[in-house]
Amino acid sequence: MSQTNLTALIEWSKSNGCKISELIEFQFSANGISAFLKNLNVPSEPSVFLPTSMIISPRIAYSELNLNETASPVTALKLLLCQWKANPESQFGPYVTCLPSLRNIGSPLTFSPEELILLSGTNMYHGVILKRKQLIAEYRKALSYLGVKNSTDYEEYDQGEIFNSLMEEISSECRYPPSFAWFLWAHLIVTSRGFPYKLIDPNTSDDAVMLLPIIDLFNHKPRSKVTWIPSFEGFELKLQGGAEKNGELFNNYGPKGNEELLMGYGFALVDNENEQLQLTIDVNDICTKFLQIWQVPLPQLKEYTCSVCADESSTSSQSSSTIVVFLSNKNRVLPEGLLELFASRRANIDDTQKTLKALLNGLSDLRSALESKFRKKLDKFQSFPLTLKGTGYFNSEEMMKSLQTNYENACIYRQSQLDLWLSLKQKLKSLEKELLKQHRPRVITIKDIMTKELFMQDVAIQLRLPLAINILSSSDIEILIRIWVLRVTEGAQSHFNTAWVKREFASVSPGVGSEVAEVCDMYEYLKASSQCLKLNSWSLKDLMKADLVIERNSYAKGSKRETVLICPTNL
């Protein structure tokens, strides 16, 4: 956009009834176009009023395009933008002329494969691929409304071919019906500049969107104090929070994380107070009984999002009634119900209440799941792709500038996701420490067993195992804990209250499972030491029962997955 185009847009809007406070001026800035306060020393409450005749709504789209109202209102608006782009002489020509180009919007949906790598290991990487597929499907449906087809097999393209196709199609003037690249352009205009149409028409569908020329020139800043005033006469934006030190005035799009901002708006915020880390989980395999015991909420993404376009805040690769979404944010690092969900997965089959064993196992499993999903992924920052300079479509100053912007936004997004993950890790670590301290009398570690049970020291000596806990192997620990269970069920004098061990041992019945082979191997090992351990009275069934007692009453602690016994404890 040029200064001439911007001036023409302002003059056109005023001539059509738009009222802009005299204290407001629009200038080019590092963020494209920004609104500024002319005089910082004058107390004011600047505003912009847009008459109804200037509001670009789905109604206009249905009317001008002769579309049946079974067509999605959002899709209709995208088609309308494409028609206006193909016809600069339209009523809203000055507005459409000033809209940013596809690459200048900055959404990852326009990224090259090399730019997509900047997002590898994040939720957004797969989200971009998924969203492109969804948009291609929407594009096909949009063309069906117009009774036309496009023979290009976008569905068969890889990410490199999609990018090349976008660049080739967008380099040509927009025609109507549009190519996929121009439909994507219209999609991003709607996501980055749209306002909920329900503000004007409460009877419209939830996903309906409107465009507000001039008002959409204001950039976003969280906590900016603004008021939106919809009415039959039009729409007014009042800016009540004053200007920044440099004089810039901001709108407030609502509490949006960087994932939603980058995908739909083309930018990310450093230290975004509304940043969130999306965790998507399938609960299909969890017993409803345990979900109820643990009072687990099952939130869907729509319960969180403030996006004006459906699904724009989601980068989940799945959509199902059994898929739930938890959002970690700065105000609540550990989302409500997330730990309880993992705890419900580790309940014993006969549990009727919440238990300490299930909670600690859920915590351990959650930590492991997060490590598997994010470790050595989120913290892998890519270097700037200098090799792209001067190659292919990156042979112009404008493309290199967009590459630099995309790189910076990708780094901001990745860092914000990494910060939340590290905060969540620390929260879980602290919570585990707190639980173990609070319930210390109900917890028995291998250190407790080997330092407080004299008969177990004899066992270690007879097995030629080290008495130093820190050099015991994980298999040594597993053997020693099982021997301890067997010995106390025989009546060995113990430092601990072992009545629960005896009750559990008497009640369990070994079945058939994947662990049986491991128990058999352990039994063969112990048989080799039967003479010194006096194991003649211990059968394979006894060892399997001891194994079940431990499985039902223990959890794997820390990265070493050390087995820790937990006395049955209801919470």
Mean pLDDT across all amino acids? 91
Query: In percent, how helical is the residue content?
Result: 40-55%
The 3D shape can be described as: elongated
Number of helices: 21
Q: Could you give the distance between the termini?
A: 63 Å
Numbering strands along the chain, what is their spatial order in the largest sheet? 1-4-9-8
Number of domains: 3
Beta-strand fraction estimate: 5-15%
CATH class of the largest domain: Alpha Beta
- Largest sheet data: 4 strands, antiparallel
Structural class: alpha+beta
Spell out the CATH superfamily of the largest domain.
set domain protein methyltransferase, domain 1
* Rg, Å, rounded: 31 Å
Which architecture name of the largest domain does CATH use?
Alpha-Beta Complex
Low-pLDDT residue intervals, each spanning 5 or more residues: none
At the third CATH level, what is the topology name of the largest domain? set domain protein methyltransferase, domain 1
The tally of beta strands, per DSSP, is 15
Could you describe the 3D structure shown?
- With 571 residues, the protein is of the alpha+beta class.
- It has three domains: 3-253, set domain protein methyltransferase, domain 1 (Alpha-Beta Complex), CATH 3.90.1410; 276-438, set domain protein methyltransferase, domain 2, CATH 3.90.1420; 441-566, no CATH class.
- The protein contains 21 helices and 15 strands.
- Helix 17 (474-489) crosses helix 21.
- The longest helix is centred in the last third of the chain and has 42 residues, at 397-438.
- The model has no long low-confidence stretch (mean pLDDT 91).
- It comes from Pichia angusta.
- One of its GO terms (cellular component) is nucleus.
- GO terms for molecular function: protein-lysine N-methyltransferase activity.
- This is SET domain-containing protein.
